[in-house]
Amino acid sequence: MATTLNEEQKADLASKIREFLAEECDMEVEDVKDETDIMEDLKADSLVFLELIQEIQQDYKLDIELRQIGKYIVKNPVRTVGEAIETMYNLIERGEEIMIEMEAEASA
Amino acid sequence: MTKRKVVVTGMSLITSLGLDLEANWEKFKAGESGVRTGTRWDISQTPTKIAAELDPGFTKFVRKYASRRFIRQTSRSGQLAMVLARQLVQAYDPGLDKLDRTRIGCIIGTGGSGGYDPDMMRVDDTWAVVRNMPNALAAWISIEFGLEGSTYTVNSACASGADALGIAHTLIQSGRLDMAVVGGADAVVNFGTVHGFNQVLALSERNDAPERASRPFDKNRDGFVLGEGGGLVFLESEEHARKRGATILVEHAGYASTDEATNIMAPKEGGVGMAQTMTAALRDAGIDPDEVDYISAHGTSTDHNDRCESQGIRLALGERANKVAVSSQKSMIGHSLGAAGAIEFVVTVLSMLEGFATPTINYEVPDPDCDLDYVPNVGREMKIDVAMSNSFGFGGHNVTHVLRRYRG
Q1: Contact between A67 and B47 using a beta-carbon 8 Å cutoff
Q2: Who's near B95: CB < 8 A, 6+ residues apart?
């Protein structure tokens, strides 16, 4: 079943993501902006996005296996906080569809 | 002080393709894969179920070279290092008794050895410390052959073996040592290693086709395959080698060892750090990019490495990148972590001596981000006067070696 996030849920999710990244990377939350580069500015590593998913997975009923999401991120890298937020919206709203597309592409 | 020329005067090699140098070389030339379904851990517990393990006969094979007591006191990697050292001394006997052994050292790179060994958990194990201390790999070899010069183990993850070779090069070049037994060994295909690398999504999960799983530079690569193996060489000053009448195989012309100081796992985008290392190595060797014939790539079969390394080679070599042959030994033997750089150094020496570039197997679908000549699927006869060998490790460790045909 596809989920649709309303504006309020989206804003709530975005602020959760900013708070998580700020805490994880020892930054002030107001310094974690949409254009902030996760690797360059926050000095995080490439797996922080997966840890972020683990953090919010239950709240948003994201049932896709983490490893599958990891593979998706390898093919579609997330660089900025804004991209992380958008990718998260996408995964929650149409994650299963994205995974099916990815599998189809891999076996093509 | 004048820098002394450093040369290679012996080598030994063990990988999933064979338990000695000759067997390995035949299979490297033929482009065979050593990857199979794993036997050294419970494969039902991990998403990845394949590895390039040593021949199952290895455990018995060690008894030809070492006592039962030694085997009890050492890890699988330690045993591998000792077998390699004995093979090296047997095949290229330098007459150690006649040499000043206070000027001969032993430097071994290892990435995973020490700490991972499940035997460490046994409470009645007398030899837990001695077996698992990573320095044991080098220490036992020095004890066995009475080498009293600098002896230690080097760890820079997957660049360990390459760094060991670099350190030995510097010690010999500067006159602190005349000679060294140097290289790498790693045999840590076990649950802890597979599980750990699975957790960071680094391993191939192409379990239904083990031999096709390691596919560096191919568009459909999905991670590296863990391997076991090792390689050792005699590095020596030219002067020392000539004085004792040794056959000089190739010149170890130079190297560079750097750190990207950026990210614990991922290389810098665009291969910028890798390129800097390659350029520094060529400068150290006094070699122009246009002289490079062949590159033994780190080529792990991960998305990041292969893309960045290809871009790095373009940055470092410029136009020459269109003419140089680049291949990945890991397509055949997987990734032996800390030993990889040493194994690939040995295979590169063989490639120069035999005039043959080994293939990158399983190359089927070109990736627009990886656009070099990878010697796809079939090896190639070619004259190699100058070769480079790349090794890169988690932690941003980059090492490039430069080898040159020896001209006396």
Answers
A1: yes
A2: B244
- Of all residues in chain B, the percent with pLDDT exceeding 70 is 97
- For the four alpha carbons of B127, B133, B137 and B143, in that order, the dihedral sign comes to negative
Q: Using the beta-carbon criterion (under 8 Å), do B266 and A74 form an inter-chain contact?
A: no
Q: What is the pTM of this model?
A: 0.93
Enumerate domains of chain A plus CATH numbers.
7-107 (1.10.1200.10)
Least CB–CB distance from B265: residue in A46, A71, A106: A46
B41 φ, ψ to 5°? Answer: -155, 170
* SS3 (DSSP) at B8: strand
Cα dihedral B367/B372/B378/B381 (nearest 10): 180
Domains for chain B: give ranges and CATH numbers: 6-243 (3.40.47.10), 253-405 (3.40.47.10)
Q: Best interface-test mutation with A: which of B263, B268, B364 has the largest number of A CBs within 10 A?
A: B263
Q: What is the pLDDT of residues B29-81, one digit of tens each?
A: 999 999 999 999 999 999 999 999 999 999 999 999 999 999 999 999 999 99
ipTM for the assembly: 0.75
Determine the pLDDT at residue B330. 98
